[in-house]
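Suppose you are handed only these lines of text.
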Amino acid sequence: MIGKICGTGSYAPKKILDNHDLSKFIDTNDQWIRERTGVARRHIIEGETTVTMAVEAANRALKDAGVNAKDIDLLIVTTVSSNVILPCTACEVQKQIKADNATCFDLNAACTGFLFAYNTVQAYMQTNMYKTALVIGAETLSELLDWTDRGTCILFGDGAGAVVVKGEEEGFYYGITHSQGEKGQALTCESRHQKGFGKTILERDTMMKMDGQAVFTFAVRNVPKVIKEVLDKGNLHPEEIDYYILHQANQRIVEGVAKRLHIDMEKFPMNLQEYGNTSSASIPILLDECKKKGVLREGQKIVMAGFGAGLSWGASVFDW
Ligand code: UT7
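From them, the structure of the protein bound to oxa(dethia)-CoA can be written out as follows.
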């Protein structure tokens, strides 16, 4: 079997923090953030949690797919920001949406999480182990950020996105994944003692730290390469792809990838301006928006690519 995405859903917290709001408590400004990242605003939890956002996105995806929660046999949540360490977020979501027949686990591959989970679902479906999967990317990065570090906190936001994947007898899919632990120090987070935006910072030294330029260079070099690798597997050329759905990390990274592939930016939908970088939630949120806007249509060839902490990166190509 090959998995086909048959429904999408997403959720973003109601509270919005725009660049002007940030400039009130750190030395930054709207122009710098827009020019260097493309971000204008981000959604930040206020009452929501990773679980509540995941549940909302999941219910919307199930409704969109016309699938009953009881029919889900595999439920994966990708997150670096679970509410608690145990039980895993996927089991909490299972309980709340009553997906009683699902096998549930979390997957942490940082911003590449959703891409890795999608490839994992496809691998399971190729062995006929599961038939109907729910994959959710859900992140409350505002709880991991050092809100005094202007080099990092301006980039990220909270949110969740979900897809329902159904196994079909025929279909088109190829995937590639990579990791490079020796470069892991470029993006780290040792604990989650931060209690969220506007609250007490307990141990600043252990919060999210990023060598922005190192991650930037890694992404611009490796994402075009992995896209070419997966296209070679599928015997396709970059111009044969209808849309490239990339992890929304920085507008200049997406532009750099488009340039290296010699593909027009029109084929790279973006929503970073509205959400910032939501790590593993960014791809499913973007898929949901593109589906709802009618951008994605049956039969189109889609490339998805993710990259981030680990370091890790990967791509897949499939029919919508
Ligand atoms: O999701 C995957 C993981 N993360 C990423 O993909 C992130 C990849 N990296 C990036 O997106 C970018 O590196 C950043 C947006 C994080 C930073 O942009 P940059 O162009 O690499 O800036 P920089 O760190 O080289 O800083 C350039 C200048 C510095 O000033 P000087 O030394 O040139 O005087 C910084 O101090 O900009 C200054 N700066 C700021 N100025 C205003 C850094 N952050 C800010 C800020 N506002 N928020």
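What can we learn from it? The two ends are 15 Å apart (CA to CA). Residues 174-319 form a domain with the Peroxisomal Thiolase; Chain A, domain 1 fold (CATH 3.40.47.10).
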